[in-house]
Write a structure and sequence with these properties.
Helix content: over 70%
Number of strands: 0
Protein name: Ankyrin repeat protein
Radius of gyration: 13 Å
Order of helices and strands: HHHH
Structural class: mainly alpha
Number of helices: 4
Oligomer: single chain
Shape: elongated
Strand content: under 5%
Number of domains: 1
Length: 42
């Protein structure tokens, strides 16, 4: 089931839906400083 979701791009769709990358989301919600955001970037 999880493999099907990933093959269909489920993890990518959740990012595209909001238009935010995970690092943008962390920066926006929690206000992490830029140097910490670089560590969190995928």
């Amino acid at each position: 089931m999880i493999k099907l979701l990933v093959d269909r791009g489920a993890d990518k769709a959740s990012v595209d839906m909001h238009g935010w990358t995970p690092s943008d989301r962390a920066k926006g919600q929690f206000g992490f400083p830029d140097d910490l955001r670089e560590l969190l970037a995928p």
